[in-house]
Amino acid sequence: MDARIRFLDGEEIAFQAIYPRLGIVWEGELEDPILADALCRAYNRYALDLVAGHRARLFPAAHISIRDSDLACAELKRVAKLDCRTAFISAAPIAGRSFAHPAYDPVWASAQELDMSLGLHLVYASPLHRQRMASRSQAQHDVFHHEFDTGPASGADHAGCRWRF
Questions:
Q1: What pTM did the predictor assign?
Q2: What's the pLDDT tens digit per position in 24-65?
Q3: Where are the domains of the chain?
Q4: One CATH from 3.40.1390.30, 3.20.20.140, 1.10.150.130, 3.40.630.30 for 2-153
């Protein structure tokens, strides 16, 4: 991370939010919410440890799986206590649900309560994921490709909900 800090200094960049390049493709393949939460916790521990010597300038975005709202809220609270300021969720729909689905309301409320920004992390779709998407109905396709227009992601249903990309 010292090399990254030198690069930031050379570019006169004060700080950086860090998102992973690889390793989150599993979100589109996995259905078990407990395993998804465990994978997120492992990544979050790694990311926070990786920047431990540079926490004033490097801010890893925590990975949160929203497959289970209670687990997602617990992980948001855990990483917030570790001074994590932002988190991301996979942009892939879960069970064909839009991000405006009421099942996710506790997650959005928890992030707002913790003053954490949330972002959507787009991922490369594996061949298996593309095959699964091809077999879905038009309605499910529309949820995947148009879910960003309404609901919590736009702030339309939650006054004061801040989404920063």
A1: 0.72
A2: 667 777 889 999 999 999 999 999 999 999 999 999 999 999
A3: 2-153
A4: 3.20.20.140
